[in-house]
């Protein structure tokens, strides 16, 4: 078994925090193991002013990490799984999925509006910051009066934009806020902003980490084995198969969440929206945990028959 592991990581605070958490778990399970983290700049990190569509999708945050893996400059790369494309380069695969964090989105508001309705904490015609097409479409579907604007950057950058008044509210993933220890779940606050859970489908893979490595790297796979969570792997495999079968990619207005409530079964819910939020196709399917990808494919094909593909063009 290997006595040294090098982790490739983006340089953002969240990415480094996630990589350090994986490094610490590896050291706990393998005393004496030397774990090094190397920072790798991605296209997305170098062009924070550009939109994700201009950068070619979320692969802009993974390509350089995957190149480093293939060049053996690192042994593993730690990703937020929702940012990892469903098709990986030849020679690479997901070696491990640790136990999943919170899958929900969180709405952060500058003030607590008294407006009542869908998203009751956001006032009429408020400006909401988000870089996600899924979140934009869901917002438009629930509250057509809201104005969604592009909010790119790491968590601190987005919070500073909200603080500076560039929006009335913004939406972030609960998992990132929790990993950075920013979310006070007692008072439901993030810094000075009031936080509210959003009860809608998350991005496929949201809340989970995907540890990517080289196909055939048996030694590293064995080191990662104690970190692997089978239920998380099955759930996210179903969600990613759903996204892949739709041919939608990471940038599409698609949400999915799978759970494994009985241990041997899996239940997947998925939604596809038009970009303007005016149309929505959703459904759910159950299957066996031994073949989670089948659940994803079955649900995607069902929603395509119901017209979902018209919203992905």
Task: Record the SSE blueprint.
Blueprint: E1 4-9, H1 13-29, E2 34-39, H2 43-46, H3 52-55, H4 63-70, E3 76-80, E4 92-96, E5 105-109, E6 127-129, H5 133-142, E7 147-149, H6 155-163, E8 169-173, H7 174-179, E9 183-184, E10 189-190, E11 193-198, E12 209-214, H8 218-224, H9 230-246, E13 254-259, E14 265-273, E15 280-288, H10 292-305
Parallel strand pairs: 1-2, 1-3, 6-7, 6-8
Antiparallel strand pairs: 3-12, 4-12, 5-8, 5-11, 9-10, 10-11, 13-14, 14-15
Helix pairs in contact: 9-10
Explain what the structure shows.
The chain has 313 residues and is of the alpha/beta class. The chain folds into three domains: 1-99 and 205-228, D-Maltodextrin-Binding Protein, domain 2; 105-198, D-Maltodextrin-Binding Protein, domain 2; 229-313, Double Stranded RNA Binding Domain (2-Layer Sandwich), CATH 3.30.160.40. Helices cover 31% and strands 25% of the residues. The chain has helices spanning 13-29, 43-46, 52-55, 63-70, 133-142, 155-163, 174-179, 218-224, 230-246, 292-305, and strands at 4-9, 34-39, 76-80, 92-96, 105-109, 127-129, 147-149, 169-173, 183-184, 189-190, 193-198, 209-214, 254-259, 265-273, 280-288. The strands form three sheets. A seven-stranded mixed β-sheet has the order 7-6-8-5-11-10-9, sandwiched between helices. Helix 9 (230-246) runs parallel beside helix 10 (292-305). The N and C termini lie far apart (47 Å).
């Amino acid at each position: 078994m290997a006595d040294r592991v090098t982790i490739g990581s983006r340089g953002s605070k969240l990415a480094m925090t996630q990589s350090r958490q994986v490094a610490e778990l590896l050291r706990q399970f393998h005393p004496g193991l030397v774990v090094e983290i190397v920072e790798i700049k991605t296209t997305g990190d170098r062009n924070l002013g550009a939109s994700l569509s201009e950068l070619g999708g979320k692969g802009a945050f993974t390509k350089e990490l995957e190149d480093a893996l293939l060049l053996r400059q690192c042994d593993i790369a730690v990703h937020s799984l929702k940012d990892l494309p469903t098709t990986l380069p030849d020679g690479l695969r997901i070696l491990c999925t640790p136990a999943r964090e919170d899958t929900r989105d969180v709405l952060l508001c500058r003030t607590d509006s008294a407006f009542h309705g869908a998203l009751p904490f956001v006032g009429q015609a408020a400006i909401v910051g988000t870089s996600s097409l899924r979140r934009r479409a869901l917002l438009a579907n629930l509250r057509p009066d809201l104005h969604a604007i592009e909010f790119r950057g790491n968590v601190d950058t987005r919070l500073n934009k909200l603080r500076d008044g560039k929006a009335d509210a913004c939406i972030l993933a609960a998992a990132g806020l929790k990993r950075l220890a920013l979310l006070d779940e007692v008072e439901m606050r993030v810094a000075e902003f009031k936080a509210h859970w959003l009860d809608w489908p998350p991005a496929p893979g949201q809340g989970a980490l995907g540890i990517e490595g080289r196909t055939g790297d048996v030694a590293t796979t064995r080191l990662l084995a104690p970190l692997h969570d089978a239920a998380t792997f099955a759930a996210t495999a179903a969600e990613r198969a759903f996204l892949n079968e739709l041919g939608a990619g990471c940038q599409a207005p698609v949400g999915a969440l799978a759970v494994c409530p009985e241990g041997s079964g899996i239940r997947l819910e998925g939604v596809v929206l038009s970009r303007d939020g005016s149309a929505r196709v959703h459904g759910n399917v159950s299957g066996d945990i031994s073949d989670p990808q089948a659940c994803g494919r079955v649900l995607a094909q069902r929603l395509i028959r119901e017209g979902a593909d018209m919203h992905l063009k």
